[in-house]
Amino acid sequence: xTPTSPSAPATATGHARVAPRPPAGALAAGGDGDVPSLxxxxxxxxxxxxxLLGVALxxxxxxxxxxxxxxxxxxxxxxxxxxxxxxAGRPGAWLAAVTGLWLVLxxxxxxxxxxxxxxxxxxxxxLPVRWAHPAVAAATAAVVAAQGGAPGGLTVARVIxxxxxxxxxxxxxxxxxxxxxxxxxxQLLIDDLVRTRDELAAAQRxxxxxxxRQRLAREIHDTLAQGLSSIVLLARAAETADADAARxxxxxxxxxxxxxxxxxxxxxxxxxxxxxEDAPLPEALRRVTARTLPTAAFRLDGEPCxxxxxxxxxxxxxxxxxxxxxxxxxxxxxxxVTLAYLDGQVTLDVYDDGVGFAPGHGPADGRRTFGLHGMRxxxxxxxxxxxxxxxxxxxxxxxATLPTGPGALEAAA
Length: 413
Known about the structure:
This protein is an alpha+beta fold. The protein has 12 helices and 7 strands. The strands form 2 sheets. The chain has a 5-stranded mixed beta sheet with strand order 3-4-5-7-6. The protein is elongated, with a radius of gyration of 38 Å. The relative contact order is 0.06. Mean pLDDT is 78; it is low at 1-33.
């Protein structure tokens, strides 16, 4: 059955979408985007076909019907199954073969009239509307004609039964089509909602980034840039002045440079956590480890080297977040923090032997892990990677890798 589908509401991007009808052969062979309820309907149809075919073949197995129906019935069962397995690439040809075999069986034994009911659904879902309804009517007429050959001839009951079965099949197929369209519309809306949420989050992050850049640009322009401009002017004036005036200009240049150095230090202090103000990164991580989780061990591998401020801040924040999670949730006996300076990169590993959790499904206690999600984004912005390995009852390991070579500053920018 292929009734015209109503249009779905416009998506968040302003483009209207149309909820599709079930594709040709969807009920018979399965289609893309199946939902469990629709898959169950399809399986029930296949089961009904084989059940009714088995019932119709039973008299022949018992010797109460022509034995010739058995090989034809076997061929029909095989042809039907082949169409299911191959997902009916050409449903029209497959359905014609199945229908032809059924008509041969119907001519041999009117007991195969019951097999027409699942065939009605195949007609309605594998053929366009202009062919589906005439096919159902023709199959109904064939059943009525076969019943007319029964003892007693054609009666009202033998006409009403097949016609009623056809009507029920049509109404049921329309209900299935409505269910399919509704499920597809809901999936489209869910997809649009998820996409809009991701776009909104990306826009908010970008807005925050641009706002911070604009703030720093204003601060630098009003302080450092103005001071450097003054130094340039004073230096040019000193070049053409006499000795006394030149010395005065040089003293003024020194005062201006000192003021700008203080401004630069203020910027650095605003961007640097207090733990990094009076200690290098390894010592800061050692202090954070001892303060956050006294039972945790800290180890330093390799020779420390200067890192961009953003890299040191990211590693410090990751250590704080990871150790805080261990202290609050892991119930671990042992934990360790390892900072390693390697060739062209620095790595930070935080391990605990606690209860662990299933990555991607959230911790077992239901807690939310926005902290690690934010750290993964921060590490990625600096050109690094963050890997979380864990399993229920097997502890957790968090490993971050960041570049330290010439491209580290550009990655941080």
